[in-house]
Amino acid sequence: MRMLAIVPCCCLLTGCTTGSRAPGQRIICDGSQSLRLRVYQYSSPTSNLRGSTVRIEDGYPSFGLDGEGTYYINGGWLNSTLGMDLGWRYGSLPQDVVDELAAQLDLSNLGNLQDCLPDTGLFDVGPWVVSSAQSSASCVSPGRKLSNALTIIQSRAAVLWSNAQRMSSAIRFSAVVAADDSSTVYTWPIAAPLAAFVFPEDVPLNAYKGYSVGVSNLVSDGADASRLRALREQYVADRTATPASFTDGQRMSDGTTTAFVYMRDSLPYEDEHGLWPF
Q1: Which of 104, 235, 86, 237 is nearest to 157 (CA)?
Q2: Distance separating alpha carbons of residues 74 and 88, to the nearest angstrom
Q3: What is the pLDDT of residues 40-51, one digit of tens each?
Q4: What's the pLDDT tens digit per position in 174-187?
Q5: What pLDDT, on a 0 to 100 scale, did the predictor assign at position 202?
Q6: How many CA atoms within 13 Å lie on the side-chain side of 39?
Q7: What is the CA radius of gyration of the chain?
Q8: 258 and 251 Cβ atoms separated by less than 8 Å
Q9: What is the C-alpha separation between 47 and 53, in angstroms, rounded?
Q10: In the 3-class helix/strand/coil scheme, how is the chain assigned residue by residue?
Q11: For the chain, which residues make up each domain, given as ranges?
Q12: Burial 3-23 (b: 16+ CB within 10 A, else e)
């Protein structure tokens, strides 16, 4: 279900028109309420903290474009240690970006971009991916063609982020029991007990869903989602001001249970598990 209503910026990749198109003219912004293109880096859940998969399960960094010309972008494109906690934003894709995508991408045959360079011995580094519902290309070390396609977004990511609006609908989160440390603790803002959402600790870490994708909790109530989002923003501000007072993960307590809580904005076109379709 689509949660945002945004005026489309484009209809055809080679021009923002609704009229007839020339033979061979490629379409991404086809007016449909569907995800059309993704550009992202896959991040392995097991290379991140247990319970924090929700922040990176749809790619980190990650960019998506729908049929109405609305783009979705997360904080992974920024040079920030807090990128995973900056959330997602949305906006209308500028026409110059639309035109450049038109020149390089064929959604039905993105595999022609897959010109991976030889393995360079990189460890714990996920592949870069350009994908659509019809095809995809992915490389850990992209060659010239895939790099050129990635650069369309990479070179503009900071501007796209700064020009975009914050998400304000539902939010997803996961929680794991917090170790006893001196990091700042925030008050759990939802009436339901925090313990109801914490991943169990009595199962080996590498065998349980604490590292799995698609197992987060969805908060669709607007007031509760706003409270969680406000706490996340406060955490980012506080950690920016006094980084030594924090670990990676926002500690919250309801007076009975203390847990690390990891959040991500719910996205249009995600499935019931919070995952984008391709």
Answers
A1: 86
A2: 4
A3: 999 887 778 888
A4: 999 987 888 899 99
A5: 62
A6: 23
A7: 20
A8: yes
A9: 9
A10: CCCCCCCCCCCECCECCCCCCCCCCCCCCCCCCCEEEEEEECCCHHHCCCCCHHHCCCCCCEEEEECCCEEEEEHHHCCCCCHHHCCEEEEECCHHHHHHHHHHCCCCCHHHHCCCCCCCCCCCCCCEEEECCCCEEEECCCCHHHHHHHHHHHCCHHHHHHHCEECCCCEEEEEEECCCCCCCEEECCCCCCHHHHECCCCCCHHHCHHHCCCCCEEECCHHHHHHHHHHHHHHHHHHHHCHHHCCCCEEEECCCCEEEEEEEECCCCCCCCCCCCC
A11: 35-166, 171-265
A12: beebebbbbbbbeeeeeeeee
> Position 48: which residue type?
N
The reported pLDDT for the residue numbered 102 is: 80
Q: Which residues of 25-58 are buried (b: 16+ CB within 10 A; e: fewer)?
A: ebbbbbeeeebbbbbbbbbebeebbbbbbbbbbb
Q: How many whole angstroms separate alpha carbon 263 and alpha carbon 244? A: 21
